[in-house]
Design a protein that fits this description.
Length: 325
């Protein structure tokens, strides 16, 4: 997907990007948890050794399951497999006893209570219009709803938050809600970044050549394949605008014109863009975190917003980017 990013930071030398990508992102810091909720308050399995518990622990361990939804799926299996390999366990993708034992030194409960503040619910929230022409008329591509905003903040699907909080007004300050007990511990700097096309993952390696973090990705399609090879990071741009050029999109609609889309969490490349030396390509977030690892991209490497932000904080121009089959 095409992207032209302005040089926005004097301290970071950014190459102008002309991407062929889509996605979005949002900066977030999870609040300190209050109290452990009653895991029996919802029909969804939320107790010890549930899928929800595993997803929270994997997220905290930086082996991301993508969007936390409490359901066993492909992203959870990738995360479990990556965690097992990194811990020297038998790689099955299944939550066997040895894997639980490796995960559970982190004694954090899967859910905590959080009290919504006036700032949380202030918005403004408005539906994002369809099409680049309509989006270009906005000042920012912000959240479409409070559910979407809270989902980004707690790495969760809006549907999960609704299930965990039946009858609770999520738009009212003072409401006490149950949320995934995520942690925002920063990652150390990576020595190498590897994107694996066949496994739909991005892995970070330390100086000893060991994987210490893994994230699900969408990477390329038959129309815009992932550029296999070794690339350099040219720069990192946060809160970028998106320069839409229909000539660079195989699926552009007839009559589409060039447009500059404003920054915001629903910008097509989110709030962070990692520019690489392959023209028109980069690593970025997405406005549809539930699709990551499950759908194709316009050639670039798409992550959830929170994962893209973690990766961006762990890399710089000295970190090689390897894209492999």
């Amino acid at each position: 997907m095409s992207l032209r990013l302005h040089r926005i930071a004097r301290l970071t030398a950014l190459a102008r990007a002309l991407g062929v990508c889509s996605g979005w992102a949002v900066a977030q810091t999870a609040p300190a948890p209050a109290a452990i909720p009653d895991a029996d308050a919802t029909p969804l399995a939320t107790g010890p050794r549930s899928d929800l518990h595993a997803q929270v622990l994997l997220d905290r361990a930086h082996f991301s399951p993508g969007q936390i939804d409490g359901e066993r799926g492909s992203n959870q299996k990738r995360a479990v497999s990556g965690f097992q390999a990194a811990r020297g366990l038998k790689v099955s993708g299944e939550l066997d006893d040895a894997t639980w034992q490796a995960l559970q030194p982190d004694a954090a409960p899967p859910l905590v209570r959080y009290t919504l503040t006036a700032e949380d619910v202030a918005g403004p929230f408005q539906p994002v219009p369809q099409g680049p022409a309509a989006q270009a008329k906005l000042k920012t591509l912000g959240f479409g709803s409070i559910e979407e905003a809270l989902g980004e903040r707690f790495h969760a699907s809006p549907e999960l938050l609704k299930t965990l909080n039946p009858g609770v007004d999520l738009g009212k300050a003072g409401s006490v809600i149950q949320v995934p007990n995520i942690a925002a511990a920063p990652l150390p700097k990576a020595s190498k970044l590897v994107i694996d096309k066949s496994d739909s993952t991005l892995r970070l390696f330390d100086t000893d050549g060991k994987v210490y973090a893994q994230f699900p990705v969408s990477s390329g399609s038959k129309h815009d394949p992932l550029p296999i090879g070794k690339w350099k990071i040219l720069g990192i741009s946060r809160d970028p605008t998106f320069h839409y050029n229909p000539k660079l999109f195989w699926d552009a609609k007839a009559g589409d014109s060039k447009a500059v889309l404003p920054p915001g969490p629903n910008n097509p490349v989110g709030v962070v863009w990692i520019d690489i030396s392959k023209p028109h390509y980069g690593l970025h977030g997405t406005p549809e975190p539930g699709h990551v690892g499950k759908t194709e991209s316009h050639g670039c490497v798409r992550m959830t917003n929170w994962d893209a932000l973690q990766v961006a904080a762990a890399v710089d121009a000295s970190v090689p980017v390897v894209m492999q089959e």
